[in-house]
Amino acid sequence: MKKAVFFISTALLVLPLAACSGGNGVVEITVPASFERLKADGVSEAAVNDDGSVTYKMSKATHKKMLREVRDEMVRSIEEMKNGQQFKSIKDIEHNNKFTEFTLIVEREAYEKSFDGVAALGLAVQGLLYQILDGVTQDRISAVIRVTDQAAGDAFHTIHYPER
Known about the structure:
Layout: H1 2-14, E1 18-21, E2 26-31, E3 43-48, E4 54-59, H2 60-83, E5 90-95, E6 101-106, H3 108-112, H4 118-133, E7 143-149, E8 155-161
Parallel strand pairs: 6-7
Antiparallel strand pairs: 1-2, 2-4, 3-4, 5-6, 7-8
């Protein structure tokens, strides 16, 4: 349950996040006022904007390290969803390299009788966060989660975040 609350809270914070990459070897990331302040070595500047958001400047190396850490955490989280006891109907999770597409492979009957669908929200939030930190603009971020029946091999539910 703690993870579900974390994922939902993160979703509310992540959606307005924006990032852009400068051409001079500096990466700028702007986060909303409600977002937890970044505490990363290598952040050269943090400017509070008029709307309360914060723009961080960092080297490309620092940005690359940040992305790698987010990716590693996502992979750990996905492994925990697959192998832990919280989401019992989920048998496997596949994803692409940019975290824009996920496939939940589930035991359908158990999935439909549980709240394991909250895992889809968690995957979407993490995927959207990764994309934003990777410089994808807010109007282009997306995550598609396909829920596939392990026995039949077919997708029986598809979720798009954000809904367009």
